[in-house]
Specification:
Elements lengths: L8 E9 L3 H15 L4 E2 L2 E4 L9 E10 L3 H14 L15 E7 L4 E2 L4 E2 L8 H10 L12 H7 L8 E3 L8
Antiparallel strand pairs: 1-4, 1-5, 2-4, 3-4, 3-8, 6-7
Helix pairs in contact: 1-2, 3-4
């Protein structure tokens, strides 16, 4: 990512799908690229569903800069989930066509009924932390106080298989 313009923040989002994931990730990536032109994408990885039995997920992390407030970013991401066929109030622990979760919004540390930032799963899920370290190794986690590269290096990689997957061009840098 390039230098930030005044009034802009860096936003990082986890994207994942386990129902026709190539199709839905391609659509989501195209919509995201249309909404935020400086977006960068990590490689995509296949990994098992966490928290329920279901098909494997394909996950990636993307980052962009914006002057939009967090609520506007979340509203746009939810609209993209809907365009990909995800019902607004789908069960949390179930297969899904698209899941877009804000991991970091600048250095914001906040907990509401809608979200917690930084997203706690970022430090627990290899399919979030690994791809985040790929595209933003020097970003410092707002509460852990370490870079993404260091957090990934310290992460327990045992038992967390992540297999690279080729996705359509819209999901590539």
């Amino acid at each position: 990512m390039t230098l930030l313009k005044p009034g802009h923040v860096r936003v990082f989002v986890a994207a994942g799908s386990n129902l026709e994931p190539e199709k839905h990730l391609a659509r989501a990536c195209a919509e995201i690229r249309h909404s935020w032109h400086d977006v960068v994408f990590s490689r995509a990885y296949s990994n098992v569903a966490v928290g329920f039995d279901g098909p494997d997920f394909i996950n990636l992390v993307l980052g962009f800069s914006t002057s939009q407030p967090l609520d506007a970013v979340i509203t746009r991401l939810r609209a993209i989930e809907t365009q990909c066929g995800r019902p607004r109030y789908a069960p949390k622990w179930a297969s899904r066509t698209m899941d877009l979760d804000v991991l970091l919004y600048g250095d914001l540390v906040e907990k509401t009924t809608e979200y917690t930032l930084p997203r706690p799963d970022l430090l627990k899920r290899p399919y979030m932390l690994g791809p985040m370290a790929e595209i933003a190794p020097d970003v410092v986690h707002p509460t852990a106080g370490k870079t993404m590269a260091l957090l990934w290096k310290e992460f327990d990689h045992e038992g967390h298989a992540m297999n690279p997957v080729d996705l359509p061009m819209d999901c590539r840098a």
